[in-house]
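Title: Comparing notes on inverse folding

I've been comparing how different people in this forum approach sequence design from structure. To keep things fair, I'm posting one structure and asking everyone to reply with a full sequence. Here's the target:
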């Protein structure tokens, strides 16, 4: 369950290679990214609410990001970039695997969306600052988490909004996301390394070092009746907002 592949200081080449091999299946809701297709609407609901709260915009607007720029880091083949563009943002997607950005660009073109996709290490691309920075299921895959978060912070505009999501490092996430999901084929084998998961407290500390303040944290939980949903239970996965401290 990842959108991520962030080379050099933060990218792990083996991670980029792993996710690059999955690029052509990314948009298949029944393929190797099936879990992401289930997760994406949940994340989008949280992101939309965060956008409305942060900029105090019209909650009924279909383009709450009109006039704003958005950066999605570890964008994969664009599952999040495309909805952000439909919300009116000028969107840039960055991923470590060139295969992913190639597939993302072709899919966006087919959908009639103007999205810029760039492969490589975020800190070396000189992309500037963005009103919205998103990074979904990425931090658990990077080599140097502090350096990566510093890169994210450097790309956030002074009054900007950041949204991050990642699995928590708990016995529940180990059983469900690693031992269970990978064993059952719901997630490709080798996707997750439980020891690299970050707890909410650890991530908040790391963000603090990067001069970012967490403003809201919610869990993403699973139940047979609700499926994946936003919850107060952060034991499986969590999503948070942050801004410049």
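Reply #1:
Here's my take.
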């Amino acid at each position: 369950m990842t959108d991520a592949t962030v080379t050099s200081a933060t990218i792990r080449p083996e991670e980029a290679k792993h996710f690059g091999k999955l690029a052509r299946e990314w948009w298949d809701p029944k393929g190797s990214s099936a879990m992401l297709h289930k997760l994406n609407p949940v994340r989008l609901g949280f992101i939309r609410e965060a956008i409305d709260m942060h900029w105090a915009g019209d909650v009924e607007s279909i383009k709450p990001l009109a006039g704003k720029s958005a950066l999605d880091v570890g964008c994969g083949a664009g599952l999040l970039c495309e909805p952000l563009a439909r919300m009116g943002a000028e969107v840039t997607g960055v991923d470590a695997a060139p295969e992913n950005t190639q597939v993302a660009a072709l899919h966006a073109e087919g959908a009639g969306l103007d999205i810029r996709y760039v492969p490589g290490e975020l800190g070396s691309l000189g992309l500037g600052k963005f009103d919205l920075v998103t990074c979904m299921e990425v931090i658990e895959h990077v080599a140097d988490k502090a350096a990566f978060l510093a890169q994210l912070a450097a790309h956030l505009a002074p009054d900007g909004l950041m949204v991050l999501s990642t699995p928590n490092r708990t016995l529940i996430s180990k059983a469900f996301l690693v031992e269970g999901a990978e064993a059952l084929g719901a997630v490709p084998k080798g996707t997750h390394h439980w020891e690299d998961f970050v707890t909410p407290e650890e991530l908040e500390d790391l963000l603090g070092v990067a001069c970012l303040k967490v403003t809201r944290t919610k869990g993403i939980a699973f139940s047979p009746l609700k499926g994946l949903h936003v919850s107060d239970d952060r034991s499986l996965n969590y999503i948070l907002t942050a801004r410049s401290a």
